[in-house]
From TrEMBL:
UniProt source species: Mucilaginibacter arboris
Xref: SUPFAM superfamilies: Homeodomain-like (SSF46689)
SMART domains: HTH_ARAC
Any GO molecular function: DNA-binding transcription factor activity
Domain of life: Bacteria
Annotated ranges, domain HTH araC/xylS-type: 191-289
Pfam families per UniProt: HTH_18
Protein name as annotated: Helix-turn-helix domain-containing protein
Keywords, in A-Z order: DNA-binding, Transcription, Transcription regulation
Amino acid sequence: MKNYHKVLSNNNQVTCRFSSINESTAKVNNNFSLKFVLAGCKVYQIKKRKLSIYPDYFLPIKKGTLYSNITSLGTHAQELSIGFDNLFIKDFEKSCLQSDKQLLDNNINKSIKADEFTENIYPFKGNLKYNIGNLKAQIDLNIQDELLLNEYLYHCLTNYYTLYKQEVFAKVEKLHFLHLSTRNEIYRRLSLAKEFIYTNYDQNIVLEQIASYSCLSVNHLLRTFKQAFNQTPHQFLTQIRLQRSLFLLKNSKYPINEIVMMMGFDSSSSFIRLFKQKYYTTPLAYRSRFKSKNQFYI
């Protein structure tokens, strides 16, 4: 398993690292960075928050943030980290978030800065996933063309900003409150609710725990969660459990009954029913697609 740490001439950095189970690190983030887990699971701790990151989500971390992480769920994890130099970030803010005339006049436009990029969990999908895959393939081949690599980094940052707008701005606008400051604060608390569900999906969690963690009343949580995310907390919990079960069916030899218990489902029958409703196949049929490939990580 190959580890690498590549620093470009403009101080953008790409790091790919394999780590063993329970292996932990602690550090201060030197630059705004995006953390991806390509295999396994990494649990990041930022102050009192614990964020479990799997291959279908990623985590942005601000410059100066003290964090630690530990490998969980299996024998190893593969983490890909992209660190963006401050000047690269500033140029991105100017070029992407200002008009052409402002760029030519070198005017300063009020825009979202890198330190405003909230440290929440975001879905790893679409163009971002495509560009990250291409970037990793180029580095795996030891490509030295920095122009090409920086173009990939630029596109990754653009893809992240697009996701950020989709996940934050659009959902903030859905909240039925008059003042923008109130909508922003409610969204921040709802993000904590999603974070709690995402990290504790395998536990027998109840609404009161989610509401307490997000500093909302139960009724307020139920009403605003549905407004912002078009699903209830229970529906989101089921979605995460099904996504995690896909990973285990593909990458582990755990029996289905054991996966049911690990994911927190009530019974095998309810798991199979929900799985078929979501993916139009049975867990056993899904697993059989990958059985011959021996891609078992855990």
